[in-house]
């Protein structure tokens, strides 16, 4: 069986209402994309990732974006406790202060879709969280490290010998 080439293109013919096509063309122009095909491919990728979020065995990577009121350390502490309960899924986080005593936090996540949804549900329950959005992709992060294995593939450091 031949392995599929990711750069191999397939043609697709689609019939759309003229109003929808006009809106698509306007979106392509506004985003300054070279073609409708590129926009349609992006929309399909979003739809496939969203569809995968509902599949029990799907493993996804993505981001969780939170906006919350940070009137006290209580909110940040509650969010940190939840993240520590999902330490396998939370790869990293970035926090910035916004105006009006608000904070923006972005979590880089990867894991089974059910665990990512459980993480989102737990974060939403924190009083002070105003907005939360999960954006996923079916493409996964490469393994960051492997526990217990020697770093066999890492290049050797150059030897530093002093001249005699």
Compressed to H and E, one letter per element, the order equals: HHEHEEHE
The largest pleated sheet is described as: 4 strands, antiparallel
**Backbone structural class:** alpha+beta
Give helix % range. 25-40%
Low-confidence stretches: none
Number of helices, counting only DSSP H or I runs of 4 residues or more: 4
Mass-distribution shape: globular
CATH class of the domain at 59-137: Alpha Beta
Find the CATH superfamily of the domain at 59-137: ACT-like. Chain A, domain 2
| CATH fold-type name of the domain at 59-137 | Alpha-Beta Plaits
Q: What is the typical, i.e. mean, pLDDT?
A: 84
Total strands: the figure is 4
**Could you give the distance between the termini?**
59 Å
Strand content: 15-25%
The CATH architecture of the domain at 59-137 can be named as 2-Layer Sandwich
Which strands sit side by side, in order, in the main sheet? 2-3-1-4
Map the helices and strands:
Elements: H1 18-30, H2 36-53, E1 59-69, H3 73-85, E2 90-97, E3 102-112, H4 113-124, E4 129-137
Antiparallel strand pairs: 1-3, 1-4, 2-3
Task: Record keyword descriptors for this entry.
globular, Alpha-Beta Plaits, 164 residues
How would you portray this structure in words?
With 164 residues, the protein is of the alpha+beta class. Among the domains are: 21-53, no CATH class; 59-137, Alpha-Beta Plaits. The chain is 34% helix and 24% strand. It has a 4-stranded antiparallel β-sheet. A hairpin with a 4-residue loop joins strand 2 (90-97) and strand 3. It is globular and about 55 Å long. The mean pLDDT is 84.
């Amino acid at each position: 069986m031949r392995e599929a080439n990711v750069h191999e293109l397939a043609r697709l013919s689609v019939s759309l209402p003229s109003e929808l096509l006009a809106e698509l063309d306007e979106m392509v122009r506004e985003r300054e994309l070279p073609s409708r095909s590129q926009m349609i491919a992006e929309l399909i990728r979003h739809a496939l990732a969203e569809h995968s979020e509902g599949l029990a065995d799907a493993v996804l990577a993505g981001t969780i974006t939170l906006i919350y009121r940070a009137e006290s350390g209580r909110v940040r502490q509650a969010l940190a406790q939840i993240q520590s309960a999902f330490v396998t899924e939370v790869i990293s986080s970035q926090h910035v202060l916004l105006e009006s005593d608000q904070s923006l936090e972005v979590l880089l996540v990867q894991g089974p879709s059910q665990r990512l949804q459980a993480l989102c549900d737990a974060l939403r329950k924190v009083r002070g969280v105003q907005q939360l959005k999960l954006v996923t992709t079916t493409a996964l992060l490469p393994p960051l490290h492997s526990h217990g294995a020697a770093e066999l593939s890492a290049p050797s450091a150059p030897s530093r010998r002093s001249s005699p």
